[in-house]
Amino acid sequence: MLKCSICRKEANSLLRVKHRKHGIIKICFECWEVEQGNQNLLHLEGGCGCCG
Ligand SMILES: [Zn+2]
Fold it and tell me: Residue 10: inside a domain, yes or no?
């Protein structure tokens, strides 16, 4: 199980994002919606997910 970096909830799959404050973290979809709404998410450069 993985844990969301924001709400600490355990989830089967998390979204890897670049957060304005926290840098590159993994968050659940609920937090993604909130953070996206707050415009706290930046675009990942490269975006391959393995070498960021
Ligand atoms: Zn979360």
Answer: yes
Q: How many angstroms separate the alpha carbon of residue 30 from the centre of ligand 1?
A: 6
pLDDT in tens, 11-30: 999 999 999 999 999 999 99
What pTM was computed for the model?
A: 0.77
Domain extent at residue 12: 2-42
Distance 42 CA to ligand 1 centre (A): 17
Q: How many domains is the chain built from?
A: 1
Q: Which of 21, 9, 6, 8 is nearest to 41 (CA)?
A: 21
| Residue 52 counted as domain residue | no
Ligand 1 midpoint to CA 48 (Å): 22
